[in-house]
Amino acid sequence: MINPRFPHISVRPVAGMALAAAVLATLACTPPAAAQDVPQSRAEISLSFAPVVKAAAPAVVNVYSLQRTVDPFYSDDPIMRRFFGGGAPRQRGGSALGSGVIVDPSGLMVTNAHVVKNATEIRIGFNDRREAPARLLLKDERTDLAVLQIEGDGPFPSLGFAPSEALETGDLVLAIGNPFGVGQTVTQGIVSAKARTNVGVADHRFFIQTDAAINPGNSGGALIDMAGRLVGINTAIYSRSGGSNGIGFAIPAETVELVVAAAKGDGVVRRPWLGAKLDNVTRDLSRQLGLDRPAGAVVVELVDDGPARRAGIRVADVITAVDGAPVSDVDSFGFVYATRGIEGEAKITVQRAGEARTVTVALEAPPETTPRDTRVITGRSPFGGATVSNLSPAVADEINVDFAAEGVVIADVEPGSFAARVNLRRGDIVRRVNGRAIGSTEELEAATSRRARYWNLDIERDGRLFSVTLNG
Q: Is 410 a residue whose pLDDT tops 90?
């Protein structure tokens, strides 16, 4: 995909560690060499990551998925093609190759959601060449993470989590995966940065940057520290050629743990809801607010009776920390706040009129103020095969649309359906159908229950309203 901030650079999904105790003991007895010195002993020459790799590699697997893709509907109408795309409506078979990490001895494993997107069959390949089928438990497109269950008798080798907060820029890390399908490969590097945002890979945009070589096929693989623990899931690279240029990104372990916990529970990823709309602090805004630097997330809108308003947060407050963890922008706030869960409270530090204040905010799941009344639209209308829900803060959070939006939103689109052929998408908000305002899923179902010669649709996508006419 093309990163909008760097149009000349592609952002490509790429579908620590302890030295052995004996080596550490030997090293402890060896006088440290000067920075410019050559190795002074056999122990210094033979230092190796092999013990860590040997322990961690069995928990990193290959992921093979058979996928079904659908070409969109064709139209000569330039406005329709701009909105809906073009091409002949047909299904095509495909396959995806990626990596995955077993995080529980029962066979629970994590990979990237884009590796198993539209998968009809998933198989897992172990590093000893064994294979096993797997089933999808949860796919969270906001974080680009998916949780699978390997089918077979355990226990399976697994990796434990390590908080990415403990990482420091410059720490050694290893990336393990299956680049280009050549087989399990280990690369070594350092943590280049800890809080990269605006990468454009997933809606939940907060990444560990590393210069360990990551290539296509590494998607879903492990980034481990020097204790052999999982600190991140490799997911993307900056590249002009498709290969590694030394700029790779991994999803932090805290986010992975959040999604895995949901898979172990009811299969729903719940994030705490602030009840506020935030924006990044620009240089001009920082001067207007009397800040010493353009950092933090400024509150631009509040929900009545939301957690933020109840805690005393006001419009124009700048959030600078959550439980002491610094907030540099909206994305970093989203990461830190989401990992707090939905129980208890969080201490949020804000700057107001040049003074720092700390308020206590209740950690709550977003409310379902309007029953979602989820329905699957059938028949030969443009919405045939679309799953739709009534909007509420809870639904808006799940689908990642504006929390204040109202009406009916498309929650899912069945591959190969009429809705897929006209390129309706998850997150589209239905405003009008044939001149009729749509305020609920019941009204949309009624408006599409009969065939029509023409379909006039008003669809809101990413804050923009499109009006399109289709043949019936």
A: yes
Mean pLDDT of 87-97: 55
What sections of 35-142 are H helices per DSSP? 42-45, 50-56, 78-84
Query: What helix, strand, coil percent values describe the chain, rounded to 5?
Result: 20, 35, 45
Secondary structure string (H, E, C) spanning 163-230: CHHHCCCCCEEEEEECHHHCCCEEEEEEEEEEEECCCCCCCCCCEEEECCCCCCCCCCCEEECCECCE
C-alpha distance from residue 385 to each of 170, 379, 388, 390, 413 (Å): 49, 8, 10, 17, 6
- 21 pLDDT more than 70: no
Enumerate domains of the chain plus CATH numbers.
1-20+53-266 (2.40.10.120), 276-362 (2.30.42.10), 375-471 (2.30.42.10)
106 noted as active-site residue: no
Q: Kindly state the DSSP code that residue 359 receives in the 8-state scheme.
A: E
The answer to whether 186 and 57 have CB atoms below 8 angstroms apart is yes
Nearest to 94 by CA among 452, 418, 361, 415: 415
Q: Of 158, 164, 192, 219, which residue is the catalytic one? A: 219
Q: Read off the amino acid at residue 68.
A: R
- Residue 292 among the catalytic residues: no
Task: Answer whether 0.85 is exceeded by the pTM.
Answer: no
**Phi–psi pair at 154, nearest 5 degrees:** -95, -165
Active-site residue identified among 104, 114, 192, 204: 114
Which residue in the list 75, 99, 140, 144 is annotated as catalytic?
Answer: 144
Residue type, 28: A
Give the number of other CB atoms < 10 A from CB of residue 39. Answer: 12
Residue 284 appears among annotated catalytic residues: no
Q: Comparing 50-59, 93-102, 290-299, 311-320, which segment has the lowest mean pLDDT?
A: 93-102
Residue 431 carries which side chain, given as an amino acid letter?
R
CB 186 within 8 A of CB 219: no
